[in-house]
Amino acid sequence: MDPQNQPQELPPELAELAGLAAAADAQVSGAAVMPGMEPPPAPDKGAELGAMLQMGVMMATPALPFLPSCYTPEVCAQIGTAFAAVAEKYGWQLNAISSPELALAVVTVPATVQAVILGREYFKTKREQEEAAARASRGAVPESPAAPQSQANAVMAAGETWTDTRPHAGQRLQPTS
């Protein structure tokens, strides 16, 4: 070997500067590990996915109150670990789960679902109130579930036969000839 091509040992003060220069070069080049440091542990994707699922369960609970009994923290952790293993096996990229689009969905979907549920209840109650007011204005007696049963019993007691010819609710039974 040529003596000129052999690395020369630097004095201690220059070796320290060489280490600082190498660290600066690594930082500029985007290397994650500085010389002399240990690499950070890899993130546990299974734990991250389990935590995200648990967060989703908590956010959906107002609209679906039975979810926490089905998706306990332990179950969410197991699902996250299993999903991460399948994702690794098939080469799925899990980086998309930290996207701004997912963050937007996590914030807006639960509130939207709850708004839809509450809206349906509101319009159902409003429609029932309007129907009750319309029946009251016509002087009609409000329908009760027991009334048709008692009418059927009275007809049966009289020995007559009646046929239900109603295409929809609101029409009367017709006697059979």
Describe this structure in words.
The protein has 177 residues and is an all-alpha fold. The chain has a domain at 45-130. It has helices at residues 12-29, 45-60, 67-70, 73-90, 100-138, 146-158, and strands at 162-163, 174-175. The chain has a two-stranded antiparallel ribbon with strand order 1-2. Helix 2 (45-60) packs across helix 4. 3% of the residues are buried.
Chart the SSEs and their pairings.
Elements: H1 12-29, H2 45-60, H3 67-70, H4 73-90, H5 100-138, H6 146-158, E1 162-163, E2 174-175
Antiparallel strand pairs: 1-2
Helix pairs in contact: 2-4
Q: What sort of overall outline do the alpha carbons produce when their principal axes are compared?
A: elongated
Main β sheet profile: 2 strands, antiparallel
In total, the number of strands is 2
Beta content comes to under 5%
| Helical content band | 55-70%
* Number of helical regions: 6
By secondary-structure content and strand pairing, the structural class works out as mainly alpha
* Cα-based radius of gyration, to the nearest Å: 36 Å
Task: Give the rounded overall mean pLDDT.
Answer: 74
Element-by-element helix/strand order = HHHHHHEE
Termini, distance in Å?
A: 120 Å
| Parts with pLDDT < 50 across at least 5 consecutive residues | 146-157
Strands of the biggest beta sheet: in what spatial order? 1-2
